Amino acid sequence: MQDHLDRLGIEYGSVINARRAKGYNYRSGADEDFDISPGDLVISAFQPRSTILNVMFEPTPTLVDSITYDITAWALPYVYDVEAYATTERIDPDVAFLSPAQSLSASEERPYAYLIEWKDPNDVAFLSSLLQKNVRVRYAEKAFTIGGSSYAPGTLIITRTGNEKLGARLDSIVRETAGEFNVRATGVSTGFVDSGSDFGSRDVHYIKRPNVAVVTGSPVSSGGVGVLWHYFDQQIEYPVTLVEAGSLGSLELDKYDVLILPSGSYGKILSESRLDTLKTWIRSGGRLIAVQSAATFFAGKEGFAIKQKKDDEEEDKEDEKSDDDEDRLKAYGNRRRDRVTRGIAGAIYRVSVDNTHPLAFGFDDISFSLKLRTSAPAYMKGTSAWNVGVLKKGSLVAGQVGYEAAPKIEGSLAYGVQNLGAGTIVYLVDDPLYRGFWYSGRLLVGNAVFMVGQR
């Protein structure tokens, strides 16, 4: 978020002395007491750019009309998925804010291992760079403590074992790369932990460098391809192959570990025979990532766990037609306003997250998702299906949602994973990289590409 604030010209800092205050908790949506500690990022509204500051941090923007051409919610604490509070108390920062930088004890010039917490998109770019430098990296599937510090699932572990070919160069590579991406790399002197699983256990897995392909070309959404391409090419600088949608039937899937289907209309491209080929590739270890309408395309198809969500009334009256005079006499001039009742104009929802699953490593148990009008409500069923992110009842945070659409969203899937044979299918019902500005989605996609299915 710091870079974003800099680009907007918004001033910020931190405090020398801790204090307690009361304010609006963006994560819970309630007024609460909270602590302000040295090192916290503090933004005062009393500054020259206060107007843009208020716009970018408004938790629940108010619309004068339900008809809008664009998204209706955007507050930066949701976009970056950070713990944040808004208070009416005047709290002025009195020292500069310093973001976490590379940290390595002088007594550990050649540590047994380096630990990197997995919680930020910069960590994904850091991992991408290391893999391309042929550094072997592992991740911890479960939480552990070592040296009195706690580490969450997803923590990256770089040991000398497995990196013997790099010799003494390992230290300089890790330190320089950590500095480049402003990542904290902590050196430890042992692989035996205080609690949890030791580094040589079955709960610590190597991350294999994946070959990734992204489907492009008609009828795939050019915008959906664009944000993915930008993500790989500019944000994490990881090589990706663009393959034409029309060539899926002849594509040698075995060349790739990960295949990403951006939002699009796949009905004519993925015929029944091609779906069988795709499932065979997945069962043999392939990893499919389906985004937005590509995810819901698989709803109801044999072998896929995702289902289309309908409310009870629709299930009972799916084939009935109303004879109500009001339905027959709808005004043509009101057609846009009528559609609003069934639509979602870029609203933010609170997501209940299973952060023990690799798809949600680095996230809190509550996260946020930008739900778009083109997203179809869905859910997953089956013993091999993991509903990793779910929109529970009352999860709307901000933005415009039609009264007919709202009940369908409750209890629907935000993102999940299906195990199929030796492979996996990741369903991302909403675009996690929408317009390249939904920052927390970068970590979600990083998990889908690098963490899910690594065994």
Structural write-up:
The protein has helices at residues 2-8, 50-57, 76-79, 121-132, 169-180, 222-235, 272-283, 293-297, 312-316, 325-328, 335-340, 406-409, 440-451; strands at residues 19-25, 30-36, 85-86, 113-116, 138-140, 144-146, 149-151, 156-159, 186-188, 204-206, 212-216, 241-244, 258-261, 287-291, 306-308, 347-353, 366-371, 378-380, 385-391, 396-398, 412-420, 423-428. The chain is of the alpha+beta class and 455 residues long. It folds into three domains: 2-86, no CATH class; 113-206, no CATH class; 212-313 and 338-451, Rossmann fold (3-Layer(aba) Sandwich). Strands 11, 12, 13, 14, 16, 17, 19, 20, 21 and 22 form a ten-stranded mixed sheet that branches. The relative contact order is 0.13.
In short:
The protein has helices spanning 2-8, 50-57, 76-79, 121-132, 169-180, 222-235, 272-283, 293-297, 312-316, 325-328, 335-340, 406-409, 440-451; strands at 19-25, 30-36, 85-86, 113-116, 138-140, 144-146, 149-151, 156-159, 186-188, 204-206, 212-216, 241-244, 258-261, 287-291, 306-308, 347-353, 366-371, 378-380, 385-391, 396-398, 412-420, 423-428. The longest helix is centred in the middle third of the chain and has 14 residues, at 222-235. It is built from 13 helices and 22 strands.
